[in-house]
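Researcher: Here's a chain I'd like modeled. Treat it as a single chain, no partners, no ligands.
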Amino acid sequence: MSFNSLGLSKALLKAVEKQGYTSPSPIQQKAIPLILERKDVLASAQTGTGKTAGFTLPMLQILSQGQSLRKRPIRALVLTPTRELAAQVHANVKSYSEFLDIRSTVIFGGVNQRPQVATIRNGVDVLVATPGRLLDLQNQGLLSLSNIEILVLDEADRMLDMGFLRDIKKIISSLPRKRQTLLFSATFSKEIKKLANDFLHHPVLVEATPENTTVDAIEQKVYRVAKDKKTGLIIKLISEGDWKQVLVFARTKHGANRLCEKMISAGISAAAIHGNKSQGARTKALAGFKKNSIRVLVATDIAARGLDIPLLPHVINFELPNISEDYVHRIGRTGRAGASGEALSLVSADETTYLRDIQKLVGMKIPVEIVEGFEPDPNASTEPIKQGKGGGRNHNNNSRRSNSPRNNSDKSNSSRRPKRNRNRRSN
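Model: Modeled as a single isolated chain. Structure tokens:
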């Protein structure tokens, strides 16, 4: 199938061709015609499946066919959970609207709001935003959403994980009741289905791939290793393999910083990216990583959400996530667009339960290796790590929220909703 068969305009087809794409992905094949028919869509799409173009292209076509208003009120709103994803979605909107009379902008926290407000006042058709900054500007009376025709909730599952449900409800309450709503999520959890039931009108269900499956092109491997030998092993693997562009996942912000410092001391150029980093530092780190001036990017799950790095060859789980679905999100950063990729996990004894749950989810026994000199500790406990009072799964959910740009506190047990509201400007 070609993009020509999806009902897109010549201007959009020209933009798609300029980006080097010839055939639509499964999610694009299924979602684009439905969106062009002005249906509400609930879509399940993993990272790297082309979902952004799946909603951006038909959204732009609908807007270009609509009434042209001189003042250009905001007619389409795309909500994303993180700054990086917002920037990436806006880059797609700009690329695909190159040959259309469509204006767009992106707003998020961590940077001065004045340039963002000035652009909005000059008139934009498409606004890409994180919930915190959007509500801030709304509350200040600096933007209006009364003319929204299309609402997109991108990576809605992650927005719920990060505690944005109340903000989403408040934003949606300010939109016209008559609109088209598109909800994209990696999973169809009960919470996502309830969200869709509350805000979508007779949505069409679209599933591009079976839920929670991994990309076939990814070679997965586990290294069993003693906990205190992980840093030495990861430095050995990267150095001896002469690997470039390695995305490493750490469980906490402090852990990411420590690992980054150890790598730099070992002569490996590295940068950390997480919620405590300023937007300028995060943008600089990502730019250096993409240009190969930085070999290793150490990230937390939240900060890495929305990173778009073409042909990323290596992903390493320095620590396994205790939420199995996050493993799928992490390794989906490699093996994209038909390219092969490698996903490695350094697993200590206390992560044995996490590994078992992950293997059950992905439906395979991941091959295991042991490197001489970095053997696992035979006397170590296989009990999962308990951090702080919460421990286990509930605690990690809290710490995951603390990695959000909305809450830069490292005190995960204090990440209650009122504090997230006070910190809204940080998004």
